[in-house]
Write a structure and sequence with these properties.
This protein is an alpha/beta fold. It has helices at 32-41, 58-67, 83-91, 113-126, 167-179, 187-192, 215-226; strands at 3-8, 26-27, 30-31, 46-53, 74-78, 100-103, 128-134, 141-143, 146-149, 157-166, 199-202. The longest helix is centred in the middle third of the chain and has 14 residues, at 113-126.
């Protein structure tokens, strides 16, 4: 009943404006992606990690692992142009013996061992699980700059990663998406299209995804106050 983690890290981070992909930028003296990998490796349920990299990043990644070792086996594959394609390509490297696949953002380095474990456990019970928390802002549906509807806030959740799924279920969801030319913003959306409900695992708001340049100083602030190694 092993779980394998997939880390889609194929983005080039052009919009971030840095001199390298944002997953390779440093946080507290260590590349963000290494923090993320170590978080996954610290989870006893995770036996192996598959990382989908930018096409030319393999030598850089290998050098990082030499300097910042991770205590679980890691397989690196070439990622795709979009996150969804990177996950699909990484799935091909997941052993058939893996009962659960955990998908986690390369630039979300704050997920705790407890949170990853809880998500895997929920996937084993309910087939699909995602970390999320209730929306605290009022959300508007907008078209052409004009708000036209306000969904009731109690039914809205902000969804994060990790997300965990039965391996066969996630493979089926990605195969269907390719066949039907569907693009989704996360893997749970693809699974939902199969009619499978996805369990929400309560997670903290500070499980930050480093997306914009001003997220880095916020991440550093959080790291200094919240994080203790190992994860």
């Amino acid at each position: 009943m092993t779980a394998v983690a997939i880390v889609p890290a194929g983005g080039l981070g052009v919009r971030f404006g840095a001199d390298r992909p944002k997953q390779f930028l440093e946080l507290a003296g260590c590349p963000i992606i290494i923090h993320t990998l170590r978080r996954l490796a610290a989870c006893p349920d995770v036996s192996h990690i598959v990382v989908a990299l930018p096409p030319t990043a393999q030598p850089v990644f290998d050098a990082l692992l030499e300097t910042f070792p991770v205590e679980k086996p890691i397989t690196a594959v070439a990622g795709g142009a979009e996150r969804q394609e990177s996950v699909r390509l990484a799935l091909a490297a997941v052993p058939d013996a893996a009962s659960v696949v955990v998908v986690h953002d390369a630039v979300r380095p704050f997920a705790t061992t407890e949170l990853i474990t809880a998500t895997v456990a929920a996937a084993r019970t309910d087939r699909a699980a995602v970390v999320g928390h209730p929306a605290t802002d009022t959300i508007k549906l907008v078209r052409d700059g004009l708000a036209y509807e306000t969904p009731p806030r109690p039914i809205l959740y902000a969804v994060q990663t990790p997300q965990a799924f039965e391996t066969g279920l996630l493979r089926e969801a990605h195969t269907r998406a390719v066949d039907e030319h569907v693009t989704a913003t996360d893997d749970a959306m693809l699974v939902e299209r199969l009619g499978v409900p996805v369990r929400i695992v309560p997670g903290p708001r500070w499980n930050l995804k480093i997306t914009h340049p001003d997220d880095l100083p916020l991440a550093d602030f959080l790291w200094q106050r919240l994080v203790r190694e190992p994860a």
